[in-house]
Design goal:
homodimer, 549 residues, Rossmann fold, 2 domains, 18 helices
């Protein structure tokens, strides 16, 4: 089914825009358009809503935001000549009805892509299928389009689609193929989850074969709060073969000519490298796009904070990373020395702040108003550490990264305002087992123990009381992570989990812990999503909830 | 247009269910059904999704939750005889497709109401119009119904609708009226906002006149996380006159006979009483439904914490309220003595915990690692107070109520993990000006200064440094609250605010503060919604966002 090159040269412009930065995004689009023209492309394709940024959430509801993005689009069009450009923008919907008090808001905009050519907005295609599940709320914002759209570009009929339009069979792509499209272009904002790049390729290959046309998919790249867009744009030919592929997790520009059997095809990262790269980009972009110069990590000597420090050093540079070790009387010499070794191996600044004096002060102040033991006393320690990190952050302007993993966040094995204090929860969607895998993998890649072996070997402990071990309060992580994967990610019931061979009393215990911790997660910092169900907009459960199981 | 009584006797059963509590809710429904039968009703109407609870959010996505609610419904049906009951439930949708990885989830259930009669589920009506704006995400959960439904009850043709179905003209109600309905029944879960009860009556009166039939509206009552359902159920006759009205903010059962010109018609509360009652119910139900025995409030001597303590005492009883005064070297004698007076006037427990020793300990520990001044030092103080409250909470099991008002939450004039630490932010949606109004009003109602006049007169101050006043950092609250109402609640642009006569530099300053504080609000506890746009699921803005204005 491959044909010889036939003239239409398509550039996939995989850019990293910033939500709300109309000026910066327009400049980025203009630069990539120039580069695509220089590379001989007839058409340059950008990702979904690249001009206003995606997802811009309730910004789309502000009429003046939509107006500003239309003005920016017109200015971009004027800079486009000698090449056609497909640019995603929020298109104000016709005659929105008056908003009633607390009544249905009109959906103010379309999720659209403009075909800019010869200095003008030549055509506009409106997304037909609006995802409204998982992390997506598109029905809240967008009025769906109802029409397919094909356009002649450099003599070739091209069908336009946006992201979800191609995730199900049928219109608009089927109609566009029927109308003679020889290429379907898909402008996407498809967020990362583990292994999703390959899944997308397989699905688009099915569509290409079904419609008998090649598909060019251009994704966004970059971090936006809890989401990471992985890039990984590609072209599949009419036989479903991948004939072009961009890099993952970075900006890229790739030109492919219709009929070309093999343009540049980047090799996708292996699983653990991919997850690590997603986390690193998430941290880098949250830091950069929010204007932080430094990041701070509290190092306990445990494996979670070790991984976070490692990611932070890769994301922003070790010279902009401050590690803070905050020993208490319950901290062992071994963990403290491991913590120091990690900071040193990474080449990061190290600060030591013992929390004993503050613990004494709280004890003195609370006096006989409390029992001074148990959970309350443990939490005071975690909160002193949180306060110290925040004091450094407020004083120096750095972003505090929190270190709790998904297993802990699931069962509430974390102190609100304590170790949960910070701006970004790097491992919030990374189960404990995967934390071990990533550290082992990175050590192996580095060819040395960036994280000392003792950190990996030592049984996990919060070190908030003498001889404390995680496994005193929680099931072994191998079991815990299986229960959590079923309960949280797959929404299985207690009975289904038991049917999968998990012990009933462990299941009951874990489910109760997960449900009870909802109030903590509601106040947790955003985390980077890498699974099919992260804690965040992916999973919206009430705090007040008496359903069990 | 009024007709004489014609036999059909309808009971509005305004109940307060708990999300997820299938057993408890079924019992409540059965009790009210019995009471309605005893009162001679032919039909008893309950609020929307009263059996599973509303909004149960992603619980609706769990198939085993929907199954359990169907089993509970069948059991309820068997207990229904001698009366028909309209009971809201989550009805599993037919043959849900397999869920694809990160693909469109099938909408698993209908938002339905079952007509239970003679021991069976006689009919089911499915909500046609699904709100998906503001606080509502119903397109995420529910497959819409497409049909109107009329049923003969006690010889009278009755049309069934659910909440939003009647908020716009047209089907299903227009079709039901056309099919001969002599009464339209509306089962609702319509959350409170200031003045909404009256708005609803006016809108339903319009519909009643348009369709020429009376409308019986039965709402839920009670608090569910950030929402309060106000009850305020009613019947409007075909002329649009209110001929029956239940109480607000409490459970109620009211029987009205078709054609009756005036059953019991409760007088609605005056504006400030209504807002106060909403806040009180919100606190009471969050506390009760989440199993807290006590509440804790940090009293600063300022007006915000005074109002919160007052509400808390009314919500749970002064004997279950602990007030905590936490003076620093910057606290004035006057504010501390006012704080003590408030606790005493309310009859609440009072604990004093000076924070000086802990401040010293932090200073000593941080040593030359920080400057020890400015915002960092101020925040340390607020965070020590947060930690002390949380230590008491962890030790005694009480719920900490936070005291920041909407004006402060808007501009970020609050310390994350400090005065923002707690389980429920009582005044999160109450602008500062309204805080004053409510306190003045409650003092007047009490006929004495429950809150000392000096608290009302004193210029607001966070007292985190010597001689600090809110107005050093913020515009006067009269101006600030006007900017915030326009920017936050009405989504106005900078230009529109200036056109409304607000000073440009104040507008710019406030907008920048509001945008910059998004990360703090993301980690704030839930608050009780009383306006048309609260911080919570009502307003979803990205943290990473470079759009200004």
């Amino acid at each position: 089914m491959n044909e010889p090159p036939q003239g239409l040269r398509v550039a996939l412009a995989q850019i990293n825009p910033t939500v709300g930065d109309l000026e910066g995004n327009a400049e980025l689009i203009a630069q990539f358009t120039d580069r695509a023209r220089d590379a001989g492309a007839d058409l340059v394709v950008f990702g979904e809503l690249c001009l206003p940024g995606y997802p811009a959430e309730d910004l789309y509801l502000k009429p003046h935001f939509a107006r500003a993005n239309v003005i920016a689009l017109a200015a971009l069009a004027r800079r486009t000549s000698g090449i056609a450009a497909l640019v995603g923008f929020a298109e104000p919907a016709a005659a929105p009805a008056e908003r009633r008090r607390d009544g249905p808001a009109p959906r103010p905009v379309h999720n659209s892509v403009a075909l800019l050519a010869d200095g003008e907005v030549a055509s506009v295609y409106r997304k037909n299928r609006l995802p409204n599940y998982g992390v997506f709320d598109e029905v809240r914002y967008f009025e769906p389009g109802g029409e397919p759209l094909v356009r002649e570009i450099a003599g070739v009929t091209v069908g336009l689609t946006i992201c979800e339009d191609l995730w199900e069979e049928g219109p608009p792509a089927a109609l566009e193929a029927g109308a003679g499209a020889r290429l379907i272009v898909n402008s996407s904002g498809s967020p990362y989850l583990r292994g999703k790049g390959t899944d997308r390729e397989q699905m688009f290959a099915e569509r290409a074969r079904a419609y008998g046309v090649p598909i060019a998919f251009c994704n966004l790249v970059g971090g936006q709060d809890e989401l990471v867009f992985d890039g990984h744009s590609f072209v599949v030919d009419a036989a479903g073969e991948v004939v072009a592929r961009t890099r993952q997790f970075e900006q890229d520009l790739l030109v492919w000519e219709l009929g070309d059997r093999r343009a540049r095809v980047e090799e996708p990262l292996a699983d653990r490298d991919e997850v690590y790269a997603a986390l690193t980009l998430g941290v880098r972009d949250y830091t950069r796009k929010n204007g932080f110069e430094r990041v701070l990590v509290g190092l306990s000597g445990g494996i979670d904070s070790a991984l976070v420090a490692m990611i932070a050093a890769d994301a922003v540079g070790a010279d902009r990373l401050t590690c803070v070790v905050m020993p208490s009387p319950h901290s062992s010499e071994a963990t403290q020395s491991d913590a120091r070794a990690i900071a040193e191996n990474l080449g990061a600044e190290l600060i030591e702040l013992p929390i004993g004096p503050a613990m004494d002060a709280y004890g003195e102040t609370l006096g006989n108003q409390w029992t001074g033991k148990g959970l309350a006393l443990e939490n005071v320690q975690a909160r002193i550490r949180g306060n110290l990190l925040m004091a450094l952050s407020n004083d120096r302007g750095g972003l505090v990264l929190t270190t709790g993993n998904k297993s802990e966040m699931s069962v509430g094995y974390a102190t609100l305002y304590g170790d949960m204090a910070g701006g970004l929860a790097v491992l919030k969607d990374v189960p404990k087992q995967l934390v071990y895998e990533l550290v082992g993998h990175k050590n192996a890649r580095a060819g040395r123990e960036l994280v000392p072996g003792s950190v990996i070997e030592r049984p996990p402990s919060a070190e908030l009381r003498a001889d404390q071990l995680d496994e005193d309060s929680l099931p072994a992580y191998e079991v815990l992570d299986r229960v959590l994967e079923g309960y949280v990610e797959r929404d299985l019931s207690r009975e289904q989990l038991v049917d999968e061979g998990l012990p009933g009393e462990v299941v009951d215990y874990v489910i109760a812990l997960v449900d009870r911790a909802e109030y903590k997660r509601r106040q947790a910092p955003p985390g980077i999503r890498i699974t099919s169900k992260a804690f965040g907009r992916d999973r919206r459960l009430p705090i007040t909830n008496r359903f069990q199981g």
